[in-house]
Amino acid sequence: YYNRSEISHSDLMLIDKSIEHFLRNGTFDSTDAMDIGRAFHCYILEREKFDTEFVVKPEGMKFNTKDGKEWQANNSDRTIIDYDSFKWFELMQKKITDHPMNCVLQGNNIEVEKEIFFEYQDLKCRSKLDYINATKRIIIDFKTISDCSKAESESKWKYSSQAFFYQIACFEEYGE
Predict the structure, then answer these.
(1) Phi and psi angles of residue 135, each rounded to the nearest 5 degrees, phi first
(2) Closest by CA position to 44, among listed 84, 107, 94, 109
(3) Can you tell me the distance from the alpha carbon of 33 to that of 85, in angstroms, rounded to the nearest whole number?
(4) Which of 115, 107, 83, 93 is nearest to 45 (CA)?
(5) 11 and 24 in contact (C-beta within 8 Å)?
(6) pLDDT category, 106, cuts 50, 70, 90?
(7) 38 CB neighbour count, 10 Å cutoff
């Protein structure tokens, strides 16, 4: 998906930063925050993949000790997530499960990490929706941000343009 040539919403956001960001194809070093976001998405949406892509650092483990260095070397093939972040994942999973709107996450016509390829005004596009229930016409996009106030999320992350992009993708895929 990520190596395809179609334009994604993320690509549009790179262009918005600068053409250099887009031309580098977002090939910047991953940050701890990006790793936590990827791990959270995987934990919530694709639990079966979590243990193959990520590993949780045991509580209190220090990487400057012999045991810590050995553990780190033995787990170098996966992204390491700190214990506190993992506990946060568990808490968020419980909040999602216990939320009154959790009923929208249930049903037969649910897809996670749904890839949709479409054309919009002669531009070939791609989108990857965290969660879609096409029958109930619901799209959910999970976010891991420190402040979810409307002003911060709109100005910094442009969530409304992402929602619009997803609506176009769904219209092209499902006809509504």
Answers:
(1) -60, -45
(2) 94
(3) 10
(4) 93
(5) no
(6) confident
(7) 16
Could you give the strand order of the β-sheet that contains 110-120, starting from the edge strand earlier in sequence?
Answer: 110-120, 123-133, 138-140
pTM of the model: 0.75
The 10s digit of each residue's pLDDT in 61-105 is 999 999 999 999 999 999 999 999 999 999 999 988 888 877 777
For residues 30 and 22, the model is more confident at: 22
- How many other C-beta atoms can be found within 10 angstroms of the C-beta atom of residue 144? 18
Q: Would you put residue 118 in left (φ > 0), alpha (ψ -120 to 50) or beta?
A: beta
Q: Which two tokens stand for residue 23?
A: 């031309």
SS3 label, residue 114: strand
